[in-house]
Amino acid sequence: MGIEQKVAIITGASQGIGAALVQAYRDRNYRVVATARSIKPSNDDGVLTVAGDIADWATAERVVAAAKDRFGRVDTLVNNAGIFVAKPFTAYTAEDYANVLGVNVAGFFRITQLAIAEMEKQGSGHVVQISTSLVDHANSNVPSVLASLTKGGLNAATKSLAIEYAKRGIRANAVALGVIKSPMHPVETHSFLNPLHPVGHMGEMSDVVDAVLYLEQAGFVTGEILHVDGGQSAGH
């Protein structure tokens, strides 16, 4: 593999936004390591799949080791895996808490440590978190304390990483989403979800892909929380 052929790791890659990101990076001639609990082997020689729970540090270690062994480097990490549980605050269970923090926080922490350690060796790299605009605009129609607790932490961590590694050629950014049309939102929910956005409709997966790819090539942008939310974070 030539030095110009970069390698991206994408979590939560078996369907929806994650699967769309895998294809988008392949279309730009990246090699991709795709991971999710239920991900199946790929017929594309440029895509290596690793099945596992990203909340388990052993999964993170297997993913980064696989990227190094198969493709020799890590250039981009997209922390796309996430769990969203909308419940009244007092209705959250210990299981909800453990599951959400496991994927959203532990699932970010270890794989990002390992990926950045590889990026440091080459003096370049990019880490992107998929977050939510609910961090910035709590909505009484969508109770979401666990989302705000975890994704808000990722937004803060993104800025901290950006500053810590600014002089080492490694950038960190996040994309804060509104509600995106994906398999997790059945069609019958769209009439409720569309009006949550000032523009009057949900986003498309292509909107997320476009935002991540913008950040990928925007070398002067780091520490940015890019809102792709139909105006939600601007006001109501």
Written overview of the protein:
This protein has 6 helices and 7 strands, in the order E-H-E-E-H-E-H-E-H-E-H-H-E. The mean pLDDT is 95. Helix 1 (16-27) links the parallel strand 1 and strand 2. It has a single domain (7-234), classed as NAD(P)-binding Rossmann-like Domain (Rossmann fold), CATH 3.40.50.720. Strands 3-2-1-4-5-6-7 form a 7-stranded parallel beta sheet, with helices on both faces. The chain is globular and about 45 Å long. The chain has 236 residues and is of the alpha/beta class.
Shape: globular
- Helix/strand/pairing class, anyone? alpha/beta
CATH class: Alpha Beta
Strand content: 15-25%
Provide keyphrases for this structure.
seven-stranded parallel beta sheet; 6 helices; alpha/beta; globular; 236 residues; Rossmann fold; 17% strand
Which helices and strands occur, and which strands form pairs?
Blueprint (H helix, E strand, L loop, with lengths): L6 E5 L4 H12 L3 E6 L10 E5 L5 H15 L4 E4 L14 H29 L2 E8 L12 H20 L5 E8 L12 H4 L11 H13 L7 E4 L8
Parallel strand pairs: 1-2, 1-4, 2-3, 4-5, 5-6, 6-7
Helix pairs in contact: 1-6, 2-3, 3-4
Describe what is shown at a glance.
The chain has 236 residues and is α/β, with parallel strands linked by helices. The protein contains 6 helices and 7 strands, in the order βαββαβαβαβααβ.
